[in-house]
Amino acid sequence: MFISKQWASAFVNSVEKEGGDIEDGVNTLKALADAADSLPGAVFGRAAAISLEPLIRGAMTEIKQGQEIAVRFFLLMVRKNVVCYIDSVIGDIKKILDKKNGVIKVLAEYAFEPEKNFISGLIESIKKQTGAASVELTGQVNTELIGGYRLKIGDETIDASVRRQLLEMEACLAAVDGGS
CA-to-CA distance for 28 and 64, rounded, in angstroms? Predict the structure, then answer.
């Protein structure tokens, strides 16, 4: 079973140990993944890694430390026949970086488009409550909420919607009434 979090952690640890720039490494991994996707046929195995290495190195003029590790990492994934999981690994690397940099990603759903003051106040409140350095908020309108909002911060959901309140009221009334 492939565990992308372990591969991501190994990548980040390698780049940090070698003193490279993780962002350079991630950008190089993305570029290599995009290039591999555009190649005809399957890209995997030792023979593919041996064929790809000179092509990759020839295309890169000046290789920084983070990029060098990304090239070696990509070729290892090709050799191990797990390059198909590279997008998942890149996603997990970004999560590790966000955690290290104190970045919190928030998905906000609103019953209607909120005022700008609400958004900035919400971001500041999340920063204050979590100690995050920054908050990346993605918002969307969801009219099913009727009113209020719902926030998803990591694995936690904060539901301050009118819909949830109505459902709770309905459950309480059903319990009092015997469920009829």
Answer: 10
What is the tens place of the pLDDT at every residue in 156-171?
999 999 999 999 999 9
Q: Could you tell me the CATH number of the domain that includes residue 113? A: 3.40.30
50 vs 69: CA distance, rounded Å = 16
DSSP output for 66-112: HHHHHHHHHHHHHHTT-GGGHHHHHHHHHHHHHHHHTEEEEEEEESS
pLDDT tens for 17-69 read 999 899 999 999 998 888 877 766 656 666 777 777 877 777 776 777 778 89
Indicate the number of domains in the chain: 2
In Å, what is the CA distance from 144 to each residue of 60, 140, 155, 164?
51, 12, 22, 10
Of 56, 80, 98, the one marking the end of a domain is 98
What is the DSSP pairing of strand 148-153 with strand 156-161? Answer: antiparallel
Domain range for 66 is 4-98
Give the end-to-end CA distance of the chain in Å, rounded to a whole number. Answer: 49
Pull the structure tokens for residue 17.
Answer: 């140990």
Tell me the sheet residues that pair with 156: 153
Of 45, 80, 98, which one is at a domain's C-terminal end?
A: 98
User: pTM, whole model, 2 decimals?
Assistant: 0.72
